[in-house]
Amino acid sequence: MEKLTLFWEEHKNKIIVISGALLLVLILVGPKIKAANTLFGQSTPTQPEELVTSESSTVSSSSEGEVQQSNSTGQSMTKNQSITVDVKGAVVHPGVVTMQADQRVDAVLKKVGGATAQADLNQVNLAHRLVDQMLIYIPAKGEEVQVNSPVLVSNEQPGEGETQASQTETETDPTAESKVNLNSATKEQLTQLNGIGDKKADQIIAYRQEHGNFKSPEDLKNVSGIGDKIFAALADQITVN
Fold it and tell me: Is the dihedral angle over the CA atoms 160, 163, 167, 173 positive or is it negative?
């Protein structure tokens, strides 16, 4: 205690001056420190908020892109429900074109620029429904048609005797409506028959386009690769109505 008392007596003036100076500094600088803390305290959260906003915008943009891609995919899926047909004869732009599966011959003519002035549309069924790989032939006036096209009226209309036979078969065979019609079946329908794969289905369609409609189920054996064994396995599944 004596040492502390002596120290105080010797240095009390300096201690008082230093203490006063420190107090003055605190009085002058304290508000500025508080203001700085308040300023930085408000501005610091701003950056994360801006970052979150930016990220949200990015995510939103990304989502929009995904929706657009989905819509684009949806459209591609619609386009995938299409078929390819070969247009020949008296048309402005003959060739292979892609059409929707549920369209008719008149829509094909519009797509190829229409029929020429020499075309004989009286020989063509413009309402004939399209099937994949169909040959659409538009004959000229006075032309003796050598091409078997299913859209031609001459190939589409059966004789009177054939019509009566067809009606009789339908009446006597209640399952006839569920059979695959060789003259109008798509490739997918043909591949459902016993022993018929993609290749044979293509051959059946090609034969039909080249030779016209099948007159009887037995004509199927004229297609390359289809013999008695395969025909026997699917005979009760087909018709030519």
Answer: positive
Neighbouring CB atoms inside 10 A of 85's CB total: 22
The pLDDT value recorded for residue 36 is 57
Distance CA 30, CA 51 (A): 33
Helix (H), strand (E) counts: the chain: 8, 5
Q: How far is CA 49 from CA 44, 46, 116, 140, in A?
A: 9, 5, 69, 75
Rounded to an integer, what distance in angstroms lies between the CA atom of residue 192 and that of residue 237?
10
Please list, residue by residue across 36-48, b when 16 or more beta carbons sit within 10 angstroms of its beta carbon and e when fewer do: eeeeeeeeeeeee
**β-sheet bridge partners, residue 137:** 88
Work out how many domains the chain is built from and give that number: 3
**Regions of the chain short of the pLDDT cut 50:** 42-79, 159-165, 168, 170, 172, 174
What is the length of the chain? 241
- Domain membership of residue 56 as a residue range: 2-78
Q: CA 82, CA 108: separation in Å to the nearest integer? A: 13
Mark which of 43, 78, 113 sits at the end of a domain. Answer: 78
H or E element, residue 136 = strand 135-138
Q: What is the pLDDT of residue 79?
A: 43
